[in-house]
Amino acid sequence: MAALSIGYQFHFHFNPPNLTPLPTKFNSLAFTAKHPLRRHHIWCPKIYAPPAVSVMAFGSSREVLPPALDSSSEPPAIFDGTPKLYISYSCPYAQRTWIARNYKGLQEKIKLVPIDLKNRPDWYKEKVYPANKVPSLEHNNEVKGESMDLIRCIDSNFEGPSLFPDDPSKRKFAEEMFSHFDSFYKAVISSFKEDTVNDAIAAFDSIETSLSKFVDGPFFLGTFSLVDIAYAPFIERFQPFLLDVKNFDITTGRTKLAAWIEEMNQIEAYTVTKRDAKELLESYKKRFLSQV
Fold first, then answer.
1. 131: left (phi over 0), alpha (psi -120 to 50) or beta
2. Molecular function (GO) terms listed (predicted)?
3. Whole-model pTM above 0.85?
4. How many helices (H) and strands (E) does the chain have?
5. Do β-strands 6-13 and 111-114 pair in parallel, antiparallel, or remain unpaired?
């Protein structure tokens, strides 16, 4: 794997014209001044005096992604003390854990091991994770699964910026959003199979309301968190399918959701995990239109 530079990126928000990036002698810090505003980690309203600073942890997109392992592939060195995140590049559940790993700057701490789900190696089920699903995390001589549990595990057991707030009201709302995910997912999927999109409309109206809960930023909890990570891979897939097949633009009349999508697409830890929209669309068409 190519060497990776991990650090923090500071965005200084000024009203004057664009300032070009300044070189730095520090390996771990990169300073840039940008306009218009990019509000990644700490929400800064459009007030130009005094200047505000936002901080976003990042891992370079220059990470060389390994090829997916299939039935002909040899297993990695299992339980050798190196944490490993077993994923599929196409799986939204695995994408959650991939984003969390990236955002905390753990590209050199947690090895990425992609699995070909259409041609899974036998050793994955026999030696790594008997459930034979992704994602799974090998850490401290044990392997755990379930994406919601794993993003919490990655956040609480590894270094890097926290993805879960200390504010009790935000933590409470986060738990509510985690619990709400299944009903959100089922409502949207039901609209894939029906003539109307009423369930999807209601589901995204609920998302719009949830994004209005905290005014200190564009994300569910104001600042970027595990909640955004939990929902992003699925909204990434729902949006092109609903627009192309159902002629339903999820952002129409939903300014908070539109802003959230825009801000998510400024976070490198997420964008490097995204799939091509056309690829996602074709995949969902094959999956859902064949059932109609």
1. alpha
2. glutathione transferase activity
3. no
4. 9, 7
5. unpaired
